[in-house]
Structures are given as C-alpha cells and as structure tokens.
Prior knowledge:
Chain A folds into 2 domains: 5-227, Rossmann fold, CATH 3.40.50; 234-335, no CATH class. Chain A is built from 10 helices and 15 strands.
Amino acid sequence: MSAAIEIAGLSKQYSVGFWRKRPRIALQPLHMEVQRGEVFGYLGHNGAGKTTTLKLLMGLIFPTAGSARVLNLDIGDPAMKERIGFLPEQPYFYDYLTAPELLTYFAQLSGINAGNRERRVRTALIRVGLRGIDRLQLRKFSKGMLQRVGLAQAILHDPEVVILDEPMSGLDPIGRREVRDLIQSLKDDGKTILFSTHILSDAESLCDRVAVLQKGRLRVVGRVSELTASVQGRMEVTWRDAPAEALGGLAVENRAGGDCIRSVVLEAELDAALQALRRARGRLISVTPIRRSLEQYFLEQGDTETNLGRDNEPRLQFQTSETPPFDTERIAELAK
Amino acid sequence: MIRRVLYIAHNTFREAVRDRVLYNLVIFALLMIGAAILFGQISVGIERIVIINLGLSAMSIFGALIAMFIGIGLVSKEIEKRTLYTLLAHPVRRWEFIAGKFAGLAGTLAVNACLMGMGVYAALWYVAHRLTSGDVSLLGAMYCIVLQLVIITAVALLFSSFASPVMAAVYTFALFVIGSFDQDLHAFAGLAHGATRWLAMAAAYAVPNFASLNFISSAAHGIGAGPKLLALNSAYAAVYCVTALAGATAVFERRNLK
C-alpha cells in the first residue's frame, strides 16, 4: 500500500522587493512520506516552512518545483479534498454564522447528503467539546472556541487524512489535552494525521514520527525518542524552607520568587541535587524537566550545513514540558 | 458542481443580509415616502414622472454602490480574513468560488431591486391613486438596472482578483462613470481621426455600455423597452459578465494565498 502522503521535491520560492525582485526560498526541495495510520509531527520554529508545506499540500499556494500526492491523488486533484480534512493556523470563519450553520455549509460543500448533515454536524461539535453554542455567532467566540470549530470542520466529513496546522495554538491546558485526546482517537480510528507544531512535548506525546524543518530545509525525520536520545536535558527544581545555596555548585541557575527558589540542574545531577536539598532540610515543591526543541538541539550540534542568516542567530530557547513524564515516586523517595 | 456554486451563492446572500446590506431599503423607503407626500402636494400633472425618475435613479445609485463596495470585497475580504483557506480546503474549485460569490451578490442585488421596485409602484399608487397599463413599462427599465448592477458586480470581481480593495474600487467606479457616457465615447470616436479614432472606438467597445441599459427617462414618459431590446441587452450583459468572470477566474486560479 502506498504512503498516505508522498512529497517529491516540493519547493517554494517567492519573489520579494518592489523594483528589484529577489528570490526568497520558503521551502527547499522536500522529500518526505507519511505512512497510512501514522501520526506525523512536523516541527520547526516560526518561519521554518511548516505552514508553507501544508498550504502547498492543500493547493492554497503553488509549488515552484516538485510534486506531492495524498492518498495516491495529485494535490491538484479536487477529489483529494473529499478525503482529507484541514485546519489552518489560527483559523478564522464567517463571523456572521453560528457554529452549526458554518459546519452545515462545509458539509454541503463536502458533498455530505442532506440526511446525514445534521447528525455529522452534531457529532463533530460534540467531539471537539462544543455544546450549547447553537445560537451564538462566531464573532462572539473566543480564540480557543474558534480553534475547536476549526477542528470540527476538519473532521466533519470523516476524512482519511487530517492535516492540522498548529492545532494546539490558542488553547488553554485543558483544551490542549482535549486536542491531544482527539488526535489520539483519530489515530485509533485508523486516520492518518499530519500536524505542525513548534512544541516538542506535543509531538513527543502523540507522534509516531516527526520531521524537523529548519529555514525551509528538512533536517531530519525519525522517532522523537531516537532524535532526543542523546539530548542531555535539564531539570527545574523548585523548593522552599532552605537557603538558595543549598544545591551548591549543582545549580546552573537560581531564581527566587515569593517563598520559593527555582534552580536549574543537569538531568544527570538531579539525584545529587535532591539529596543536597534533603540535607539542607528544604521542602521540595516540584521537579520539572526542561526540554530543548529539536531544532535547538540540531543547532547546538553545530551542523555545518545549517544556513542561517545574520538575523537568525541561534537563540537559546527552552520549552518547558507541560505534563512532565517524571517518576514522582522516585522524587518523593529521594526527598525524604 | 452547480450545487457548490449555489451553496456559496446562498452563503454570500446570507452574509449580505446579516451584514445589514438590505438596510439601504429603509433609506430608500423613506425617500419614496417623502417624495410621494411632497410631490403629491406640489406637482400638478408631473408627479408620476418625478416619482419614476427619482425612484429608478435611486434604485440605480443604491444598487451601484452596493455592487461596487461589496463586489470588490467578495474575494479580497475572504483572503484578508483567511476564511478562504478553510473553504478551499474543501472540494471547491476556485472557479466555483468566483461563480458562487458573483451569483450570491447578483441575487442580493436582484432582491434589493425587486423590493425597491415595489416601493416605486407603491409611491406611484399613492400619488395617482391608481396604476395604469403604461406603468408596466417600468418593469423593463428596472430589469435593465439589474443588468447594469450585475455587470458592475462582475467588473468589481475582476478588479478585486488582482488589485487592492481601494484600487479595485477606483477602477470599478471609473469604469462605471465612463460606461455611463459610452454613447458620447462612440460619438467622439466617430468625429476623431487616425489612431485617436481607433483608440476611442476600442475603449467605447471595451467599457460596459451602461448608457444603452438606461431606460429611466423613457420609462418615466411611458415608453418601454421592447422584448427584442431586452433580449439583446440580456445577451450583452451575459457576454460581458462571462468575460469579466473568466478573467477573474484566470487570475484567481494562479494566485498564491499567502
């Protein structure tokens, strides 16, 4: 069986400038495959080319070179769109409509027959957690609610492939978890999901594989665990009732806020740090892993192929994992 | 295929209604009521002509303003607000979007003109206390106003497919003004010589001939447009709209939605 999404040398170049047109490469020739039934994360910083790739796949912009096929259909084939769902980044809809009206409109355009429309609309709204909003126009929706409407329209016609551009954007922690659950349930239904994000923890918790894009170039494709295996993480330890010097030289960084002190330590030295804290009779509040983004990791590896402009110096950017996958029992034991 | 065009047209009509576009009818109604009361009292024998002239001119101007200002936003607003991204992510071809948007606004304008037409007849009935068989000729003039509005919509769509909203409005308004004096342009071409003649002639045929679609004065005097003329005007409007929409589609089909 062929891959769900096959991208062969897809590239995009814009001309910028008024008098003298200069080329600006948004996406360098991209070769990639997403297998059927896979949850595939598309990672990279803002401006890395993620949205460009997804827009190319959706036919919203046209490639400078290369081609792509989704479910064995060329991306220019309108029949392809009957079988895929798409959520654009920060979606905006006709604000004079209510959510059921909007979804009914999209259901009509997707060819869902009249007998099934209402049921599909109801199901999609319930699935994204929107209830009791039947009479509310979309202009009165919050950003998070609009994101949910966007997700509902993407899954409304039961597509085989779902493409989501920053699906967690604008959502609160509960909303983010619900979206993760939704993606997981779509995977359980056998759907193929391609979603872009710049947050590693989202990709790590959901994806079978990820691709990392940097300055329009594909850097790597693989499993998150494989890609981060050699990344030495850092941990943030928060405590109280002990002096800031309690961790001694183990703390890379110390910050005091209120009654608490937050220290960053290397992951390898966490045990020693917790023991030092116990000796100082400090009270442990939390231990949170700090994860670097994959892109940052690749920058730090000093990859000579990386082509950064003057205004794109590597920035030290850390992502704090929202739901730390940490052994709490071990922490409690060490803190005794 | 046609269904999708109709769904988009229906949504465009719904947008116009919910954005209170039809509120212009309130101003029109007030104008007609005021005119009927005023001219019913001060005009002797010409109140019918005044009401028809005023009513049909208002219908034409109100309609043209709606066609221009909503027409130029049909495409650009969808791109600017990015509502188009989700629309085109569904199995909708770009030409279907253009055709649906055009049909939706044309339908809005037709409904608007129908309601205004009823207002004109109501005002006529108020001042004359009866309607005559000659008043049927108004329908032909109203129909030709709708044809004008439909052409303006197509032209606005064409310009908005490649120009900024402001420039599209300027171009459309300029074409509306020039088209309203198209017969003068033809007359000028007849008097000119050499390259000027050819240029003027080309321009006279290229711009929409709104002058030939204007029957307001003749309708006020009870002279209606014959069925043959109406058929020819319909064919002219159809050809002009199809050409303008084909141009808009050709541009839009190649446009990157950044």
